Amino acid sequence: MKSIKFIVLIGVLFIFYINFSCNNNAKSTNNVENDITNNENVFKIDYPKDSSLDQISSLLAGDCAKNFETIFTDEMVFWNEFKNSVDNSWAKIIEERLSKMDVWSETEINSKINDTILLFYPFSGPDFLNAYHLFPNANEYILVAMEKIGSLPNLYEMNEADINDYLEAVNFSLRDIFKRSYFITGNMNSDLRKNKTDGVLPLLFVFLNRTNHEIFEYGYYRLEDDGQTFTKIDAPTNSLENIECVKIKILKKGDNKLKDLIYFYADISDDGFDKTSPFYSYLDSLRACNVFIKSASYLSHYSTFSKIRNLVLNKSKAVLEDDTGVPFRFFKDDFDFYLYGEYEKPIADFNSTGLFQKDLNDAYVNVGAKELDFSLGYHWHSTKQNWLLFVKKDKSLVN
After folding, report:
1. Which terminus in the chain has less CB density within 10 A, N or C?
2. For the whole model, what pTM was predicted?
3. What rounded mean pLDDT belongs to the chain?
4. Number of domains in the chain
């Protein structure tokens, strides 16, 4: 009797393995949390889902091509080579950066703040990846940048050669995030012009897959003149005069709460806000949030970006940034601050007068900073990274 039960158990386990082999093959290179969330959701979400979106994100991310097997021929030689290449890149950044960021976020960042509120990420590009690993519990993500939104191709109607070219273009667009941890706007815009990827949407899908998220739906929207109302549109116009975004409804596998990831294509300089004042009104009406700024070309240091700088200071409960974000002197006495890594002068690309912050350097010398064991930012080629956490004081507790 025991032997029969054992055989039945082996059979069940074998069926389980077959059903989930596609996910398990990619397990070693997905988010380390996959170990506990690789199975189907244990929660039932009462919201309609477009199942094709997960299939597309899985293909773009080099994760699984199960739903495209009829397109690939010759035993899927191309796909296997592509997947191995992508998996190797992801395995490297998980080991060297993302897994360490997960630990740092839990112990040093989220323990000091309310990490479940909205995350606002100006100057983001399509960088949901780092935003998620540092703020995994945010209930909504709003990203703003000047890379075009773009679209998804109809992969189901493409032949193998076209899919090959498209996937290579997507992967090529990720080279800076793999190597440096940030996107270079010039490279990104050039990539989008040269290749078949016409915007950031496919890259957002890659990051959602590799951070173990399901995608329920997405849509394009235009912000109306009242700064509050959104109208759904068929496709973005790629004009900065129209405040447009893509909204993606996502669910972390194993979770029971849907979240919104919103990416705006917008100019958030003072001139940009003057031309699109409804967007300023929209941002100014946001609920209290955490803010994340990295590799932001020191734009918040200039008077031409004073409005977004003031928005960050006024709306934020906490700000996590490197020295390219809001200058140290603007936080004054309204925030407690925590320093990490080493402060170095800006890299040569930005080494102009006024960008070196003497008061920040003095704080690193006099107050001290905790060490960092990962690289995230412009000084990616060295170990000299700096990160700053500002937490707004509760004035009700001040005597």
Report:
1. C
2. 0.86
3. 83
4. 1
